[in-house]
Design brief:
Strand order of the largest sheet: 1-2-3-8-7-6-5-4
CATH superfamily: PknH-like extracellular domain
CATH class: Alpha Beta
Order of helices and strands: EEEHEEEEEH
Radius of gyration: 15 Å
Number of strands: 8
Oligomer: single chain
CATH architecture: 3-Layer(aba) Sandwich
Shape: globular
Number of domains: 1
């Protein structure tokens, strides 16, 4: 990680219809690993999750369908009530299949966090890269994190 980033424990796995997004019903997750980094001052932060499945193609399809239908998630996150919007955004294809979304979440304390989120499948592995920041996510930094995450899958 670049200077100023540190590893953190993170027990939250999404808000509302995004909760446990990478655990689609009816598909067995066979292995999973997740790492969460924060930058000095708590923002930006990065969450990377890798998972294998009994049927990764079907898992990706279900994950893609779930997030596409999740336009306005809401619920508790890190002790705060949040509401958000989820919109697809154009991003270069990554792996065998990929989807990308931008999200904006507001907390009950009027804090707004912006996210870029990419989910990709490479053979039997699905990787999710989520970067959150304020006032916006650095597109070049996010692209660098995605490149590093996917390189692990193809090497």
């Amino acid at each position: 990680m670049p200077s100023g980033w540190s590893l953190e424990n993170n027990g939250d796995n999404g808000v509302g219809c995004l909760h446990n997004l990478l655990e689609p019903p009816g598909i067995k997750q066979t292995q999973v690993a997740e790492v969460f980094y924060i930058h000095t001052g708590n923002l930006p932060f990065l969450d990377e999750k890798l998972a294998t499945y009994s049927n990764a193609k079907r898992a990706f399809s279900k994950i893609a369908h779930t997030i596409a239908a999740c336009h306005n998630p809401s619920g508790p996150f890190k002790g705060y009530q949040t509401t958000g919007t989820v919109t697809p955004f154009s991003y270069a294809k990554v792996g065998n299949q990929s989807i990308a979304y931008q999200m904006v979440f507001k907390t009950s304390t009027n804090v707004t966090i912006y996210y870029d989120y990419l989910i990709a499948r490479e053979n039997k592995v699905i990787v999710a890269v989520l970067e959150g920041s304020y006032p916006a996510v650095s597109s070049s930094q996010f692209a660098g994190f995605v490149t590093l995450a996917v390189a692990k899958l193809t090497s």
